[in-house]
Amino acid sequence: MTALDTVQRDTPYGTAFLDDSAQLRAMRTLLRKVESVSLDPVKSRDFVHRLSKEL
Known about the structure:
Elements: E1 7-11, E2 14-18, H1 21-37, H2 41-54
Antiparallel strand pairs: 1-2
C-alpha cells in the first residue's frame, strides 16, 4: 500500500488538507477498515444489479 503524504477532505465548510502524522495514521486506519468491509468489484456489480431489479 502506498503511504499517504496528504489527505484532502471536502466538508460543507470547504476543503481541508491533513498532513500531520497522527491525522494520517487515523486516515490509514479508516481506509483499512473501509477496505476490509468493501465488496470486490464483481460482488459489488452483482449487488447493484440485484438492487436495480428490485426497483
